[in-house]
């Protein structure tokens, strides 16, 4: 038996059972897998305990979503987007509460939490425009024969998401999937299980029928059960590259449509004609925003030629970033150790630490996990600090003489999420834009996240599967085309007026 929790109970910092959201209710005692304690990265305080869903539990969730699909899949599109309009309004009305939940479970600043929610809402806006976009076309292909197409939903679909954007990344998926007529099972990161429970309640308040949006908590076993389940038609994943590849392979082998976005190592290239102030502010914000835990974060800064004065400005600006004041926390102690390990290794390999964020603490929050902004210089391009995804507020500087060398470093890295250039020359920007091997290019922008309706997605080892995750590609991913060829001869038509 599952226990139903009262609406609005999800967000509170509590040591109680966190629960799942199924068939329009928040349920506890539903999972029968491992118990996972969830703590706040800000100060280590307990947020609750979740019990992971097993294959049997996933089976029950799929049954609930399948039942809901019978009605939802047959609901006209114009009616399907109505709850999304109301959901957007409710999210806006409750944004302070939602941002507080994101901050409590993820550790980012309130401003960052709010920005992530608002970015997610852009996808909701896009999804509400699907009645225009889904209109399709018709062509008379020969006399009396018309071809046209319709977009059908896939059925029950799933989303599996990472810890770093508890609101935004799931919102890349379900607004479009739900508007397309699918019913959705979300498996959030077990490190941030709370935000989407509150979103599910808001969806219910918005009039979304029960069972259309479900949240199943869990870990690797839960993900594998979702990927193996025959009742799930498609799965979108966002997380690290190693897991993205495994998820893509497993889900595809089980006959699903899969799109899996992975990790990143993003390069920012600075040339001597760059505007020093804009560049410094922008580079630092890219490297230290969300404490560097963004798949779009600047990780390597490549300076071309003499950029020493710009570099000095970057170091000065970065030195003003203070954990607990204008930078948030690191998700857990293992991540803090990993990040500090990269810094220590660079130091022992002879690097200069222009800024060293190891050992950072925040007064009164000794149980939290913090790393200060770090600027590493003097490693070569093969060093782990210059090649691996560190996923913390660490920027590694490489110096080269030509833009082609910078491009060669960027393009030989296996990832391909984002790459940016800072310049005041349109020609230089164009040269870079045409040659950089990444899905999202920034010109004087360090976090070049495309705004809707442009779609989000990287290249190379930053994504497995075809298409991007939002925008028109999201709509293509969450629906299937049916092509209809129809023949009606006009000869023999009755003329009723005669
Ligand atoms: P992660 O890969 O550890 O976890 C992501 C999800 O997969 C979670 O829900 C987790 O429960 C599940 N999972 C973990 N291990 C698994 C396994 N072995 N098999 C099946 N499922 C498993 O990622 P994370 O640490 O939560 O998030 C950070 C990573 O996500 C970074 O690498 C970051 O670059 C990436 N990311 C990428 C994008 C993008 O758009 N490309 C966006 C956000 C985050």
UniProtKB/TrEMBL annotation:
<dbReference type="InterPro" id="IPR016163">
    <property type="entry name" value="Ald_DH_C"/>
</dbReference>
<feature type="domain" description="Aldehyde dehydrogenase">
    <location>
        <begin position="34"/>
        <end position="483"/>
    </location>
</feature>
<dbReference type="GO" id="GO:0004491">
    <property type="term" value="F:methylmalonate-semialdehyde dehydrogenase (acylating, NAD) activity"/>
</dbReference>
<dbReference type="InterPro" id="IPR010061">
    <property type="entry name" value="MeMal-semiAld_DH"/>
</dbReference>
<dbReference type="GO" id="GO:0006574">
    <property type="term" value="P:L-valine catabolic process"/>
</dbReference>
<keyword id="KW-0560">Oxidoreductase</keyword>
<protein>
    <recommendedName>
        <fullName>methylmalonate-semialdehyde dehydrogenase (CoA acylating)</fullName>
        <ecNumber>1.2.1.27</ecNumber>
    </recommendedName>
</protein>
<dbReference type="GO" id="GO:0006210">
    <property type="term" value="P:thymine catabolic process"/>
</dbReference>
<dbReference type="InterPro" id="IPR016161">
    <property type="entry name" value="Ald_DH/histidinol_DH"/>
</dbReference>
<dbReference type="InterPro" id="IPR016162">
    <property type="entry name" value="Ald_DH_N"/>
</dbReference>
<dbReference type="Pfam" id="PF00171">
    <property type="entry name" value="Aldedh"/>
</dbReference>
<keyword id="KW-0520">NAD</keyword>
<dbReference type="InterPro" id="IPR015590">
    <property type="entry name" value="Aldehyde_DH_dom"/>
</dbReference>
């Amino acid at each position: 038996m599952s226990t139903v929790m009262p609406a609005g109970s999800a967000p509170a910092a509590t040591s109680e059972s966190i629960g799942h959201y199924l068939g329009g209710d928040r349920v506890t005692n539903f999972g029968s897998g491992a118990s996972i304690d969830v703590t706040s990265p800000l100060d280590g305080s307990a947020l609750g305990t979740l019990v992971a869903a097993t294959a049997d539990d996933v089976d029950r969730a799929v049954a609930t979503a399948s039942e809901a699909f019978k009605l939802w899949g047959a609901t006209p599109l114009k009616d399907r987007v109505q709850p999304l309009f109301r959901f957007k309004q409710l999210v806006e009305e409750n944004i302070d509460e939602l941002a507080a939940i994101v901050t409590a479970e993820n550790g980012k600043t309130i401003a960052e939490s709010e920005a992530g929610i608002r970015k997610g809402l852009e996808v909701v806006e896009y999804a509400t425009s699907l009645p225009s976009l889904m209109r399709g076309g018709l062509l008379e292909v020969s006399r009396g024969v018309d071809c046209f197409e319709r977009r059908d939903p896939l059925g029950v679909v799933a989303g599996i998401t990472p810890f770093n954007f508890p609101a935004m990344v799931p919102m890349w998926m379900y607004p479009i999937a739900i508007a397309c007529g699918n019913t959705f099972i979300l498996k959030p990161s077990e490190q941030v299980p709370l935000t989407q429970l509150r979103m599910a309640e808001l969806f219910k308040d918005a009039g979304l029928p029960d069972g259309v949006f479900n949240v199943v908590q869990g870990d690797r076993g839960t993900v594998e059960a979702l990927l193996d389940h025959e009742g799930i038609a498609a799965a979108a994943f966002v997380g690290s590259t190693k897991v993205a590849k495994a998820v893509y392979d497993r889900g595809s082998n089980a006959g699903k449509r899969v799109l899996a976005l992975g990790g990143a190592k993003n390069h920012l290239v600075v040339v001597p004609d760059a505007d020093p102030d804009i560049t410094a502010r922008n580079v630092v914000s890219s490297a230290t925003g969300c404490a560097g835990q963004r798949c779009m974060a600047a990780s390597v800064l490549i300076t071309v030629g003499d950029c020493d004065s710009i570099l000095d400005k970057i170091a000065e600006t970065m030195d003003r970033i203070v954990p607990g004041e204008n930078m948030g926390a690191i998700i857990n102690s293992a991540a803090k150790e990993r990040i500090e390990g990269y810094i220590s290794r660079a130091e022992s390999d002879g690097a200069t630490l222009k800024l060293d964020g190891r050992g950072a603490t925040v007064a009164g929050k000794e149980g939290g996990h913090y790393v200060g902004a770090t600027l590493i210089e003097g490693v070569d391009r093969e060093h782990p600090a210059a090649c691996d995804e560190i996923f913390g507020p660490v920027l590694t500087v490489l110096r080269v003489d030509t833009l082609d060398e910078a491009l060669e470093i960027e393009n030989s890295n296996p990832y391909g999420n984002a790459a940016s250039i800072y310049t005041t020359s349109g020609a230089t920007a164009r040269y870079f834009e045409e040659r950089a091997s990444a899905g999202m290019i920034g010109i004087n922008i360090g976090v070049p996240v495309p705004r809707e309706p442009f779609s989000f997605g990287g290249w190379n080892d930053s994504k497995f599967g075809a298409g991007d995750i939002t925008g028109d590609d999201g709509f293509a991913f969450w629906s299937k085309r049916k092509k209809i060829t129809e023949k009606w001869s006009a000869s023999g038509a009755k003329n009723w007026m005669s």
